[in-house]
Amino acid sequence: MAPTIRLNRSTRFAGFTAAVTRKSEDGKQEYYPAQKLTIEQAIAAYTTGSAFAEFDEKQKGTLAPGMLADFIVLDRDLTAIPPEKILDTHVLQTVVGGKTVYQSE
Known about the structure:
Layout: H1 14-21, H2 39-53, E1 71-74, E2 91-96, E3 99-103
Antiparallel strand pairs: 1-2, 2-3
């Protein structure tokens, strides 16, 4: 199993949160609010969008037969919580190439 890497609150989901809220981490400063993404758009950017940017969308970006199975399991449904709560999200499991490489305790 891969070594455990602990991320503090300020690094977990920081980019994802910024994409959805367009606010600084402390929530005091808002940047270009018209450029906010919906949670669904942010998820797509981090999945199918990332695969497309790598020219690897035929193998990555979605969970489907024949695709590489890289995904995380979270402790909450990001589509069902306020964007301000995203930074409190914890990864429960990480699967890379169909193999579990991280499992929370």
